[in-house]
Design a protein that fits this description.
Layout: H1 3-10, H2 14-21, H3 29-42, H4 48-55, E1 60-66, H5 75-90, E2 94-100, H6 105-114, E3 120-123, H7 132-137, E4 143-146, E5 158-161, H8 163-176, E6 182-186, H9 192-207, E7 217-219, H10 224-235, E8 243-246, H11 249-261, E9 271-276, E10 292-295, H12 298-314, E11 322-325, E12 328-330
Parallel strand pairs: 1-2, 1-3, 3-4, 4-5, 5-11, 6-7, 6-8, 8-9, 9-10
Antiparallel strand pairs: 10-12
Helix pairs in contact: 1-2, 2-3, 5-12, 8-9, 10-11
């Protein structure tokens, strides 16, 4: 059904129907409700090009996806994007993904914004002193940041996880179990979240009178292969750790394989915690030894980012300018008292 047919079905002018569908204030709420119900019943979907001409909006949000032969797909990115897509569909927004070389992200964001194909965009994987934030401000489009950037003023819209607390809470749990030899299998420290996690662990251990040896802080991509290599490197040290904090369940998968290959018992000979982004294919409670985790849903974060961005574009809803979510700690069998 097209606009003309929907108008005839309702006995209203095409202009009134179009304005009702596009949220113009001069249409009464009763008429708007009637038009929207008829559109839902008949399966009518507005022509995006015509809608853009009528409203000046593309009804699209976008992001730049770093990709290159050396850049592998990230499970964490996929889960976040699923949340963005779910909310975009709910609001009848297009979701535009522009691939770009990781070294050309700023240029890609500028192209995306100037193309007229999106009304707003999000920036992720924040780095220290991230220049993309100042660039985003200059583009004149709504944007939101997933994460934060050390070294610059925190005066931009963001949603972030309290990453300091992620490793601080995990370290606190292990300290209470008597552990004194700690190590980290962290994410790449080019990213802000990994820096904050290390700092969270360092601060909590310092409060307990312990120094975290930099050689025991491994910064690696969040994959099972890298987790395996990192754990093997830690276990090969003259004084291997009794407590290891992983940045992701993917890393933990490899780390557990390394522990098992050495004939060590998780939760007895060595304790391990991980941060769980609630990835459907990697559930920590289903590991051979269920993993102690801090956890926060990346899909929920993607949904929240999309809700806030679309809300700003449409001028609907009242959302906080900045949000910091707290992860929850769930204790399972992978952590136990420090070995004597």
């Amino acid at each position: 059904m097209n606009l003309k047919e929907l108008s005839e079905f309702l006995g209203l002018s095409q202009t009134t129907v179009s304005r009702a569908l596009n949220g113009f204030p001069e249409v009464s709420e009763a008429t708007r409700k009637r038009v929207l119900e008829a559109a839902e019943k008949t399966g009518y979907r507005p022509n995006k090009a015509a809608q853009r001409l009528a409203t000046g909006r593309a009804r699209s949000i976008g992001l730049v996806m770093p990709t290159s032969p050396e850049h592998h797909f990230d499970l964490h990115f996929g889960e976040f994007v699923s949340g963005v897509g779910e909310v975009s569909l709910k609001h009848d927004f297009h979701f535009v993904i522009m691939p770009a070389d990781p070294d050309q992200e700023e240029k890609a964001i500028r192209r995306l914004a100037s193309s007229g194909s999106v009304d707003g965009f999000y920036i992720g994987y924040l780095r220290e002193n991230d220049s993309r934030i100042a660039m985003a401000r200059s583009l004149g489009l709504p944007f939101i940041v997933h994460g934060r950037s050390m070294g610059i003023a925190q005066d931009y819209p963001y949603l972030d996880l309290d990453n300091e607390a992620v490793f601080s809470d995990a370290a606190d749990h292990l300290l209470k179990l008597g552990h004194r030899k700690f190590a980290l299998i962290n994410g790449p420290e080019q990213f802000d979240f990994a820096i904050r996690r290390r700092q969270g662990a360092e601060k909590r251990l310092a409060e307990a009178g312990l120094h975290l040896d930099p050689a025991s802080c491994l910064s690696v991509p969040m994959t099972d292969e890298q987790g395996l290599r990192a754990m093997n490197a830690l276990l090969d040290r003259p004084e291997p750790p009794t407590a290891v904090l992983c940045a992701s369940t993917a890393q933990a998968l490899g780390a557990v394989r390394a522990v098992n290959a050495r004939g060590l018992k998780l939760g007895q000979d060595i304790s391990l915690t991980t941060h769980d982004d609630e990835l459907p294919l990697l559930k920590p409670e289903l590991f051979s030894v269920p993993l102690t985790t801090t956890h926060s849903s990346l899909r929920a974060a993607g949904m929240r980012v999309a809700e806030r961005l679309i809300g700003e574009i449409e001028g609907t809803g009242e959302f906080p300018f900045q949000e910091v979510w707290k992860a929850e700690l769930t204790v399972r069998a992978s952590t136990g008292p420090a070995p004597v």
